[in-house]
Amino acid sequence: MRANDRVVFENVSKFYGDVLGVNRVNLSIPPGITSLVGPNGSGKTTLMNLMTGLIRPSRGHIRVLGIPANQPEELFRYVGYCTQFDSFPKGFTGYQFVYSYLRLYGCAHAEAEDLTWKAIDRVGMMEPARRKIAGYSKGMRQRIKLAQSICHGPSVLVLDEPLNGLDPLVRAETIALFRALAEDGMHVIISSHILHEVDQISDQVILLSNGYVVAEGQIRGVRSEMQEHPMQILVRCNRPGVLAAKVFEQDSVVEAQIHKDGLGVLVKTRDPDKFYLLLNHIAQNGVTIESVAPADDDVNSVYDYLIGSEEAGR
Amino acid sequence: MNPLWITQVLAVLRLEMRKTFLSKRGFWIYILAFMPVVLFTGKSIVEMKMGRIGDFGEDTNVFATVFQLFYLRLAVFFGCLGIFMNLFRGEILDRSLHYYFLAPIRREVLLAGKFLAGVIATCLIFTTSTVLQIAGLYWEHGWRVFSDYLVNGNGLSHMAAYLGATVLACIGYGSIFLAAGVVFRNPLIPAAIILVWESINSILPSLLQKFSVIYYLKSLCPIQIIPESGGFFAMLSINADPMPPYIAIPGLLLVSAAVLVAASFQVRRMEINYATE
Fold first, then answer.
1. Nearest CA in chain B to A52
2. Does the predicted interface ipTM exceed a cut of 0.90?
3. Which residue of B has its CA nearest to A96?
4. Which has the closest alpha carbon to B176: B230, B212, B206?
5. Is the Cβ of B232 closer than 8 Å to some Cβ of chain A?
6. With bands split at pLDDT 50, 70 and 90, how would you rate the model's confidence at A314?
7. Among A104, A113, A145, A159, which would you mutate to test the B interface (most chain B Cβ atoms within 10 Å of its Cβ)?
8. How many domains does chain B have?
9. What are phi and psi of B50, to 5 degrees?
10. Under CATH, which architecture does the A7-223 domain have?
11. Mind telling me how many Å the CA of B268 is from chain A's nearest CA?
12. Quick check: A80 pLDDT over 60?
């Protein structure tokens, strides 16, 4: 384990000529699963290419576990990158694709062969591994790229839209694999525009829009920072009408709506803590509360509030 | 146990050799390389069919002329262009260069591996052609005359000089085209510039002449050719200031090394941005 366990961006900007890639990015990404979320062109891939040294920042510095991103010979001992590029060296089988990477890494034949089969097995590609990649489906190509990125046991795994093209079953298996890798202490950095999946798997999110980081951190923490959007809480209870009347006594509650199934109240409040205290009081006064759950502290809502419903719907 | 960089150079070499040899894209290089073999062998066959035997000395001069004016200046030149420029540029066009850039390998080591693969491929193709050209040309004279030329004449030293010049041409042009493939997007521009530069080499000032490949190669060729037609061909073949091999060989290697060092700085700064290609 390296002394510095963070992926750090210091005031990083990247311009493609006059076109902005990302601007003034300051990040410190801890281990665990981190998702980069944003619409097309928001700068997700640019950030990933910057942290893996495939492109250089116009300004600022990037260090991955303390290693400058412009030192590939050191960096890729610890980093695996599953890119979005859907192109492969010509004529390769899946096995050769992973094996050759390990030979470039410096492994001897026997070790490379052993690690290749382990990685291929981990992504469930044993059967088609000897076939040419040119004949693979999109999902298979995605998985063989994933095998290549994990084959050398990296500490940081960077995955650009890794779930694209995977069928639901493989998608679930792949998410489970990401979780297992993160539990082993690995950084798993994922870009995605499929919000509910990000919500399921992320320990923290980085929301991007037009090349700027608009929010970062644990999703609930990000949500609680957004004071201009009152928190929505769904309370399931036996007497929603009574509950709605009671909650309106509190100044911080801006809206209370009986749920359409008639079995709960959707409350919008500027002060959730105060509201939870009030609920305790109400519960002691004849209303049976079955469940209390935040209704808009998921990535989808945060993304919608920060970046706009138009882009979120893309 | 090999040091890491040697293991990595060999890994790059293995990958590149698969791509460089017998690829459909490079088929024209074989045609270019073996065209003189077909011509010389054809000439021998025609002479033998007609019951004639050509003049040995004249054939030697024909070979020297074809070797200097066509083989080195066009066949090896364009063959190296096709192979070395594609080592990086071809991968960018195929969008597969990132495969190398994602490995923990120094970009300089990558460049060395690719260059070595190109040198091995071109040397094998073009030296084979050189040997076959000689065999084809002298076929009509029979093995006895040819072996006499090799053993008792200066055949062996001539052959060694031609093969050496071919290898050095591959190294020299290879380094230049590899560097050009890193810098230029369109191969036609550097090819045209370098072709003109190499052609006007003999009328350049002495110092500038040393910054070309053909200057050293001409000095290594065993026979000074003097085209009867004069004019343009005379300009191409004239070598007013020939160098002894012990200066020409290290001189060419030094120029190639300098070009490769410059290319390695460029590769070190290279970014993967296929969208702009």
1. B102
2. no
3. B15
4. B212
5. no
6. very low
7. A104
8. 1
9. -85, 0
10. 3-Layer(aba) Sandwich (3.40)
11. 9
12. yes
Specify the pLDDT at position B235: 64
Residue B4's SS3 state is helix
The DSSP element (H or E) to which B160 belongs, if any, is helix B155-183
Q: How many CB atoms lie within 10 A of CB B155?
A: 17
Is residue B167 pLDDT above 80, yes or no?
yes
Q: List the CATH code of the domain at A230-295.
A: 3.30.70.100
Residues 6+ apart with CB under 8 A from A188: A32, A33, A34, A157, A159, A178, A181, A182
Tell me the pLDDT band of A310, cut-offs 50, 70 and 90.
very low
Confidence of residue A196 (pLDDT cuts 50, 70, 90): low
- Rounded (10°) CA dihedral A192, A194, A196, A198: -10
Answer whether B13 touches A (CB < 8 Å). no
Reported confidence tier of residue A3, pLDDT bands at 50, 70, 90: low
Better-predicted residue by pLDDT, A197 or A78: A78
Q: Name, in order, each residue with C-beta under 8 angstroms of A166's C-beta and a sequence gap of 6 or more.
A: A139, A142, A143, A174
pLDDT, residue A90, reads 85
Q: Which amino acid is at A3?
A: A
Residue A278 makes CB contacts below 8 A (sequence gap 6+) with A246, A247, A249, A250
Average pLDDT over residues B142-161: 90
Using a CB-CB cut-off of 8 Å, the residues of chain A touching B276 are 16
Take residue B183 and report the two structure tokens written for it: 């810098």
Structural domain of B205:
4-276
pLDDT of B232 strictly over 80 = no
Q: Which residues of A touch B19 (CB under 8 A)?
A: 89-90
Distance from CA of B183 to the nearest CA of A (A): 16
Q: At a CB cut-off of 8 Å and minimum separation 6, what does A102 contact?
A: A111, A112, A115, A116, A151, A152
Residue A24 three-state SS: strand
Residue with tokens 């020409």: B248
Domain ranges of chain A: 7-223, 230-295
pTM (predicted TM-score) = 0.84
CB contact under 8 Å between B95 and A83, yes or no, is no
CA distance B165 to B158: 10
Residues B11, A56: C-beta atoms closer than 8 Å: no
List, for residues B59-111, the tens digit of each pLDDT value. Answer: 999 999 999 989 999 999 999 999 999 899 988 988 999 999 999 999 999 99
Mean pLDDT, chain A, rounded, equals 87
B12 has a chain A CB within 8 A of its CB: yes
Interface contact flag, B99 A89, Cβ < 8 Å: yes
